[in-house]
Each structure stands twice: as structure tokens, then as C-alpha cells.
Design goal:
The protein is an alpha/beta fold. It contains eleven helices and ten strands.
């Protein structure tokens, strides 16, 4: 079977899915002019009009819309076939994007178990706090902390998170911090100034008001270091669970004010990938493994925090 105009069909599929030549060009890494030339060449070859050229942009014709879903499905199957063939070279490859918090503070210590189970899967990472466009480049999946997966994404829900004050055992002892504490006067209070957009995150002022605490100290000190400020023994720091969990387990940090001060996140972690893309073998393996790890983690949390994750 001879299949011609494959690049032009790819341009057509990307334009139908994204809505504009500009968006399709950005996804495929070519110029807008190149997309236009490929589409025009395909129209000449087929003898049909695929787009109406309007002053405000392009509009797909009924002919083009009729094949849009099958084109997307077809290219998804091609990607899946490539993933199935790749192990013949000896290694499956998987690239995942996430924040450095997720990688350094949660995933890294768990990955040896994954590699032991799947020694032929080579995993690489794109570290970013921004929402990396999974339609571009060679990134397969993303781990995101968000309200929802987002349009055009398939997802597996992982675990939620929580926010609460932590410090070293020495700081807790020095200031006599415990669930009975009602006066934070003199205690150095720290919070991040680059915080999550989760609406459940609150700073020290809100915590002090919510619990009726006394605090005649200056306002909270803004920091980027998060739990690293706490580890350094600087004071009482509002941290996220993912950041400080390992140090809570080891005893390097404590949550001295108790479970009453644990604020459940409304966001949660998710493993996401483009909905149009069929999962290849390494993607399926990583999905199944990380979902199981997340459930195991959520089951451990109550023993550490005193409350389950929502």
C-alpha cells in the first residue's frame, strides 16, 4: 500500500484539532506558510476544498470535518505502533514533565522500585513549574497539581496534598510548641511568597485568625526555600505535604501544632497525557505503577499527619 501526502495529512489533522494554521504550525514545529502550502497541495491532489479562507482565519469545510476524528485516531494509532516497535531496539523510552518539588521530594525515592520492575524502560524528565505543552516535542506525560486535568487531556487521579506548619524538633522544644500552643509571640514565622494557586492555601495571618492565636511578632517572613528553611532551624514554616513528607518520616521535621492545623488542598496530583494519544507500553507501565504508589502513599499519610488526605 502506498500512502502519499503523509505530512500534509498530519498538517490537516493538527489544524482541524487546534483550529488555526498558527496553532498547528506551533505544534508541529514548522512555519504557518509551510502548513498552508501542505494543505493547498493536499487540496490540489484530492480535488476538494478543505478550508474556507476568511478574513478572520480559516474554517474547515464539511468534507474536512467528516474525517477529523478518524485522522486523529489514525495518527494516534501510528504513535502507538511506534511505541510498540521501539523495544526492538532494546529500550523503551518515556519522558515525563513535572515540578522539581514532585520529582525531588516525592518521586525520586520511589523510582528505584519502578526501574527494578521495568529495567528496560528508560525514564527522563522535563522539570518545569509551567504547564508544558504535551503536543510539542517528545514529552509523553505530565504530573500536575491542579483543580482538573484540563481540556483535551486524559488523566489518572493521584493523591491530594495538605498545608501545615512544620519545624525541627529543636525549634519546637525551644518555643514549647504543641497542639496546646495559643501564643506564637516570638516564634519566627515563615511562608512562601511563590505559593500554589490552590484557593485552600492560606498564610499565617489567616491561620492565626482561624485558630484565635496570639502573635505579637512582626509579620511572617517571605521565603522561597519552603521546608529547607524549616530544616535549617529558622522557625515555623508553612509547607506542603509533598515537600516535607520524607523529613517528617525521618524525624528531621515535626508538625508541632497537630492535625487541627492541617489544611487539605482542593487541588490534587494527576498523571495526564493528550486524550487523542493511545498509551504505548512504557506509558501504560508508568501509569499503573504510579497509581499504585500514590494509593500506597495516601494510605501512609494518616499515621504521619493524624488525618487522612481528602
Amino acid at each position: 500500500m502506498k500512502l502519499s501526502h503523509l505530512n500534509a495529512l498530519r498538517a490537516l489533522e493538527a489544524t482541524l484539532r487546534n483550529g488555526t494554521f498558527t496553532a498547528a504550525a506551533a505544534e508541529l514545529g514548522v512555519t504557518v506558510a509551510a502548513i498552508g502550502q501542505q494543505i493547498r497541495g493536499l487540496e490540489e491532489f484530492l480535488g476538494v476544498k478543505l478550508f474556507e479562507r476568511l478574513p478572520q482565519g480559516v474554517r474547515p469545510t464539511a468534507v474536512a470535518l467528516a474525517v477529523a476524528a478518524r485522522l486523529t485516531e489514525g495518527f494516534g494509532q501510528i504513535e502507538e505502533v511506534l511505541g510498540e516497535l521501539r523495544p526492538a531496539a532494546g529500550t523503551d523510552r518515556l519522558k515525563v514533565t513535572m515540578s522539581h518539588f514532585m520529582l525531588d521530594d516525592w518521586l525520586a525515592q520511589r523510582m528505584p522500585a519502578f526501574h527494578q520492575r521495568y529495567p528496560r524502560i528508560e525514564v527522563s524528565y522535563e522539570i518545569s513549574v509551567a504547564l508544558v505543552d504535551l503536543a510539542k516535542g517528545d514529552i509523553d506525560m505530565a504530573i500536575r497539581f491542579s483543580r482538573e486535568a484540563g481540556h483535551d487531556f486524559a488523566a489518572e487521579n493521584l493523591h491530594g496534598s495538605a498545608y501545615f506548619p512544620v519545624c525541627t524538633p529543636a525549634v519546637a522544644e525551644r518555643f514549647g510548641l504543641s497542639p496546646r500552643t495559643r501564643d506564637l509571640t516570638g516564634v519566627p514565622l515563615f511562608q512562601l511568597y511563590e505559593v500554589t494557586t490552590d484557593p485552600e492555601w492560606i498564610g499565617w495571618s489567616a491561620i492565626i485568625d482561624r485558630h484565635g492565636l496570639r502573635c505579637d511578632s512582626p509579620g511572617p517572613l517571605q521565603q522561597t526555600g519552603g521546608f529547607r528553611v524549616a530544616i535549617g532551624g529558622s522557625g515555623l514554616v508553612i509547607c506542603g505535604l509533598t515537600e516535607c513528607y520524607n523529613d517528617l518520616l525521618s524525624g528531621n521535621l515535626v508538625a508541632p501544632l497537630g492535625p487541627e492545623y492541617v489544611i487539605q488542598s482542593s487541588y490534587r496530583y494527576r498523571l495526564v497525557w493528550p486524550a487523542r494519544r493511545s498509551l504505548n507500553r512504557p506509558m501504560r507501565a508508568f501509569r499503573d505503577w504510579i497509581v499504585a504508589e500514590s494509593r500506597r502513599f495516601a494510605a501512609e499519610v494518616p499515621a504521619v499527619l493524624g488525618v487522612p488526605l481528602a
